[in-house]
Design a protein that fits this description.
Layout: E1 6-15, E2 18-28, E3 33-37, H1 44-51, E4 59-64, E5 67-69, H2 74-80, E6 82-85, H3 97-104, H4 114-127, H5 143-156, E7 161-165, H6 173-188, E8 193-197, H7 201-207, E9 210-215, E10 218-224, H8 230-238, E11 257-267, E12 273-283, E13 286-291, H9 298-305, E14 313-318, E15 321-322, H10 327-333, E16 335-338, H11 342-345, H12 353-357, E17 368-369, E18 372-373, H13 375-388, H14 405-417, E19 423-427, H15 435-450, E20 454-459, H16 462-468, E21 471-476, E22 479-485, H17 491-498, H18 505-508, H19 511-515
Parallel strand pairs: 3-8, 3-9, 6-7, 7-8, 13-20, 13-21, 16-19, 19-20
Antiparallel strand pairs: 1-2, 1-4, 4-5, 9-10, 11-12, 11-14, 14-15, 17-18, 21-22
C-alpha cells in the first residue's frame, strides 16, 4: 500500500485555561520524513498524542488519505495505520523477538500456534529492509537492534504513518544514522510516511525532507529542509530572544589532577559488578567526557562518585587525598554535581525552589547561624540565583516539581555553580531539553572548566561530548576501552567501541593515558 497523506487543520487542544496547541495547520506529505521542531512545551508532544489517540483535540480536523477521520482513542489510530516509536523501548526483556512481535498484536487467541506464527514472521522479515533474529531474547540485543525492532513492530502491525519521538537518544552515532537512513529510504520508496520529533539539527538536515516549527503552541515556521539552515530553524524555535551560545573553551594547559579513580570497582543493583577496576584522572581546567551506550556502567560509576553507591574495590582520590564521599569531604574539596534526572536525584520535589537551592549551604553563613536559619537571607539568595540562571518559576516558594525539566536543570546548576567549584561531576545534563536550555547549560559547564574546575562529563550524546570535552573515554561493559583527544576524534572509531564492535580495545585504548 502507498504511503499515506495527513493534514492537520486548525487543531487546538486545551488543558483547563492553558492552550497547549493553538489553531495548528500542517500538511504531512506522503512518502516524506517530516521533522517537528520546538522547545519543550512548544506543543510537539501534544500534537502527536492527538494523532495517536492519547488526547482528543478540542477543535480542528484530521484529513487522512483524503478523508476526514476522528481519532478519539489509540484504537482509532491503530485502525487507520498510525503508530508511534517512543524514546524508551516498549519491549519485554525476558521474551524473544518473536514473542514480542506476536504480543504486540494484542488480539491473541487462547492458544497460540507457534509454528504458524514463526512461518508468518519469517515471511514478514524477508520483506523488510533490515532484520532482527526472531529467536534472540530482548535482553541480549544491543540498543540499535532494539530500536530496529521497535520500528519493525510498527511495520508488522501495518502502520503506514510512523511517528518517531526522539528515536536516537539511546543509540550510537552509527546506529542512529543507520536507523534513520533505513526509515528515510522506506519513505522515499513510498512505503511509509514519517513524522520525527528531534532536538538534533544534524538529524533534521541529514534525514528529513520537510520541517515544521512550533512555539508556544503555534505553528511559527515551516518549509523544505534543503532550503533552510540550522540557524534559520533555531531562530524560528526561539523567536527574537537572545540565547547564550556555548562558551568558547579557553586554550590552556590542564593543571594538576583533581579527581582520580584507581582500580575502582562498583556493583549494580543485583549484586553483580557494573564497573570493573577502572582508572581515570580528571585535571584542573579540563572536561573529561565518558561516552557509552546506556547500561554500560556509567550510572553506577557516577552514583559511586557522588556517594549514592558504595565502593566495591579500589579507591577514589580528590587532590591526592583518599575520598570517601562524605558531606564534609564534599564541602572541603568543593565538589559539585549535576546528576541525571535531577528532579529525582538532586531535589526534594515538594520543597520550594528556594529550599532546594539551599540544600548545599543551609547550615552555613549567611543562611544560618548555628541552628538558626535566616529566611530573609535564604529568600534573597534564591531570588539572585533565579535571576542569574534565568530559572522560570512563578515564585521562589513554588514547589520545584512544578518547574519544567529545563528549569529544574537550571535551578540545580544554580545551586551547584553558585560557589567556587574545584570538581564538577555531570551526567547527561541536557537529556530531552530544548535548544535554548541546552545552549545555556553547556555554556555554564564550559565556563566552570575555563575557571579551572575539573569536569567529569558522562553523556550518551556523542555530539555533546565532541562539543564540550577535551578528552573522551569510551566505556563498554564497565571498562574503559578507548581514549582520544576530542579535537581529532574519529566518530566511526568511537562508535565501534561504544557498540563493542572493536576487535582489539586494549591495543587502542592508550592505557597509559587513561591511568595518567
Amino acid at each position: 500500500m502507498a504511503a499515506p497523506a495527513l493534514q492537520v487543520i486548525g487543531m487546538t487542544k486545551r488543558f483547563g485555561a492553558m492552550t497547549a496547541l493553538d489553531n495548528v495547520t500542517i500538511n504531512f506529505e506522503p512518502g516524506k520524513v517530516h521533522a517537528l521542531l520546538g522547545e519543550n512545551g512548544a506543543g510537539k508532544s501534544t500534537l502527536v498524542k492527538c494523532l495517536v489517540g492519547f488526547y482528543s483535540a478540542n477543535e480542528g480536523q484530521v484529513i487522512y488519505d483524503g478523508r476526514e477521520v476522528a481519532i478519539k482513542t489509540p484504537f482509532d489510530a491503530a485502525a487507520l495505520g498510525i503508530g508511534m516509536v517512543y524514546q524508551q523501548f516498549t519491549l519485554v526483556p525476558s521474551m524473544t523477538v518473536e514473542e514480542n512481535l506476536v504480543l504486540s498484536r494484542g488480539n491473541l487467541p487462547m492458544k497460540i500456534k507457534w509454528s504458524e506464527e514463526t512461518k508468518a514472521l519469517r515471511a514478514f522479515m524477508a520483506r523488510m529492509p533490515f532484520q532482527v533474529p526472531l529467536e534472540k531474547q530482548i535482553s541480549s540485543l544491543a540498543a540499535g537492534e532494539k530500536q530496529r525492532l521497535e520500528i519493525l513492530k510498527q511495520l508488522y502491525l501495518d502502520r503506514r504513518l510512523i511517528i518517531l519521538d526522539e528515536p536516537t537518544s539511546v543509540l550510537t552515532l552509527e546506529e542512529a544514522d543507520e536507523a534513520l537512513g533505513l526509515i528515510r529510504d522506506m519513505a522515499h520508496r513510498d512505503e511509509i510516511s514519517v513524522i520525527i520529533i528531534t532536538h538534533k539539527f544534524r538529524e533534521v538536515t541529514s534525514f528529513a525532507d520537510n520541517v515544521s516549527v512550533l512555539r508556544r503552541g503555534k505553528l511559527v515556521g515551516e518549509g523544505k529542509v534543503a532550503e533552510l539552515s540550522p540557524d534559520q530553524m533555531a531562530e524560528m524555535m526561539i523567536g527574537s530572544r537572545q540565547i547564550k551560545t556555548s562558551a568558547d573553551k579557553i586554550v590552556h594547559e590542564a593543571g594538576a589532577v583533581r579527581l582520580e579513580t584507581i582500580g575502582l570497582t562498583v556493583g549494580d543493583d543485583g549484586g553483580l559488578t557494573a564497573v570493573h577496576g577502572v582508572n581515570l584522572a580528571v585535571k584542573s581546567g579540563e572536561i573529561l567526557g565518558i561516552a557509552g551506550v546506556s547500561g554500560n556502567g556509567q550510572r553506577e560509576l557516577i552514583e559511586c562518585l557522588l556517594g549514592q553507591r558504595p565502593v566495591a574495590g579500589g579507591m577514589v582520590k580528590v587532590k591526592g587525598e583518599p575520598y570517601s564521599m562524605t558531606r564534609r569531604e564534599i564541602q572541603k574539596h568543593k565538589i559539585f554535581s549535576l546528576p541525571e534526572e535531577p528532579l529525582r536525584n538532586a531535589c526534594v520535589p515538594n520543597m520550594s525552589v528556594a529550599g532546594n537551592m539551599a540544600l548545599r549551604s543551609f547550615d552555613q553563613q549567611p543562611l544560618a547561624s548555628g541552628p538558626l536559619l535566616h529566611y530573609g537571607a535564604l529568600g534573597s539568595m534564591a531570588k539572585r540565583l533565579i535571576a542569574e540562571f534565568r530559572v522560570k518559576t512563578s515564585s521562589p516558594e513554588a514547589p520545584i516539581r512544578t518547574l519544567s525539566g529545563g528549569n529544574v536543570q537550571r535551578a540545580v546548576l544554580a545551586r551547584e555553580l553558585s560557589a567556587e567549584v574545584d570538581v564538577l561531576i555531570v551526567a547527561n545534563p541536557v537529556f530531552g531539553l530544548d535548544f535554548a536550555a541546552v545552549a545555556d547549560i553547556h555554556s555554564r559547564i564550559v565556563a566552570a572548566r575555563n575557571r579551572g574546575a575539573a569536569v567529569l562529563l558522562v553523556s550518551e550524546d556523542l555530539d555533546e561530548l565532541l562539543e564540550l570535552a577535551d578528552r573522551i573515554l569510551v566505556i563498554f561493559e564497565g571498562e574503559f576501552v578507548y581514549e582520544t583527544p576530542a579535537a581529532n576524534a574519529d566518530t566511526s572509531i568511537i562508535g565501534r567501541y561504544m557498540a563493542g564492535h572493536a576487535s582489539t580495545p586494549a591495543a587502542v585504548a592508550a592505557p597509559e593515558a587513561v591511568a595518567a
